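Troubleshooting log. The previous structure file for this entry was overwritten by mistake, so regenerating from the original sequence record. Sequence copied from the archived sheet and checked twice against the printout by T.R.
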Amino acid sequence: MEKSFKTIERLDQVVKNLIQDYGYDSKIEEVRVFSVWKDTVGGFIARNTKPSSLIDGKFCIWVKNSVLLSELHLLSSNLIEKINSKIGKDVVKELRFQFKQFSCCSQENQPQRTAEINSEIDEIEISQETSQKINEAIQDVEDAELKRVLRRVFEKMGKRNLRTVSQLSSERR
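Regenerated output below.
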């Protein structure tokens, strides 16, 4: 059984293409920026701030008190440089700080909430078209176990995307 090497793609390229096709590349960048925030600003600032969103290079952060908010504004350009340096590319172009009270103790119910979200996601059905795209993306993977895992990952990504879209549309009503 001879295969043409012209049609074989590297697995990392297949995954990268699927991530871009589903629009998850911006979400992955957001997660990366959120994850380096604490290391960039240190414990005190991290406990008194909360990353909110990253949209079109604008990184929004909630800040618990106005004095800290003012200080962070003064450090903005330095923080942008440090964040982008840790990530390895210029993802953050602007920092926007917003005064907002939030609870730092919301982690207590996190395992229960995660289980609830996973249960909601498992109930979502993906479309035939999405299933077909997944099959096409993994068709050249020979290892059965790897193929099964990739299918589950891509299906879960699709379901999460559908859940997010559903939530956004219900919030707008």
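The first strand starts at residue 49 and ends at 55. Archived copy saved in two places this time.
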